[in-house]
Design the sequence.
């Protein structure tokens, strides 16, 4: 909560900034304080990979190299926003994305934020090479020597470093990534379960179903049914049942 007088009745942010309202809102009189905020839209499936790697709050100390870059970007964003020149909306969107990237870089640069996770893994040059191969061809039958070679490391050194940085073994990561892709396909597409199984590297629907249930906690059929029910009820404005909540191990 922000305010010059904390005894006053607080206002809900959704009331102050309703959807479709002007992008600039003035509360009270004067020009003593300017607060800028925003949000980043993430895919419901893939976005969770990033969110699971981040804390609920990231704070960058003023005076640091990352904060200086962020301050410059904020200045440029405000200038573009107030200038209303041709292409200012496009420029603001690009600057906002750069701000988000700079915040992530600032977070990763601090030694206390060196815990294992996906974000740290893609920031490691060697491990990132192996991740790129997995992401580009998830259906391939990956083996540890193939990934270690891509990273330019011995099999033992690669396996040790991957687990230390990513928090899981390389082949466990392959499985998790396949399940993320399958989750998106089941939620958004019309492919049959057999087609999805083949697209993420499983020779049979049964093998895929067993793997999906082990990781996600429900069969692909039940997961798809739940997701479509949730989407329908959300559109109707009805409360969504919670008999089953998909959970990624």
Sequence:
């Amino acid at each position: 909560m922000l305010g010059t007088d904390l005894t006053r009745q607080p206002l809900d942010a959704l009331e102050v900034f309703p959807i479709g309202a002007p992008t600039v809102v003035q509360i009270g009189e004067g020009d003593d304080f300017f607060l800028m905020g925003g949000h980043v839209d993430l895919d419901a499936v893939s976005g969770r990979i990033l969110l699971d790697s981040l804390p609920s709050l990231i704070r960058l100390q003023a005076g640091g190299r990352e904060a200086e870059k962020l301050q410059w970007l904020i200045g440029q964003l405000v200038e573009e926003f107030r200038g209303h020149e041709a292409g200012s909306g496009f420029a603001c969107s690009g600057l906002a994305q750069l701000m988000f990237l700079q915040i992530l870089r600032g977070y990763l640069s601090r030694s206390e934020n060196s815990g294992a996770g996906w974000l740290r893994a893609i920031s490691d040059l060697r491990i990132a090479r192996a991740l790129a191969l997995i992401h580009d061809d998830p259906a391939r039958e990956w083996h540890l020597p193939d990934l270690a070679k891509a990273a330019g490391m011995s099999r033992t050194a690669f396996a040790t470093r991957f687990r230390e940085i990513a928090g899981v073994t390389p082949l466990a990561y392959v499985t998790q990534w396949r399940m993320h892709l399958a989750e998106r396909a089941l939620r958004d597409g019309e492919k049959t379960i057999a087609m999805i199984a083949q697209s993420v590297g499983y020779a049979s629907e049964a093998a895929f179903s067993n793997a999906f249930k082990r990781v996600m906690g429900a069969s692909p059929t039940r997961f798809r049914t739940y997701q479509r029910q949730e989407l329908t009820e959300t559109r109707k404005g009805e409360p969504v049942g919670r008999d089953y909540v998909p959970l990624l191990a």
User: Anything to note?
Assistant: The two ends are 34 Å apart (CA to CA). The chain has two domains: 13-35+54-113, 118-236. The first helix runs from residue 13 to 16.
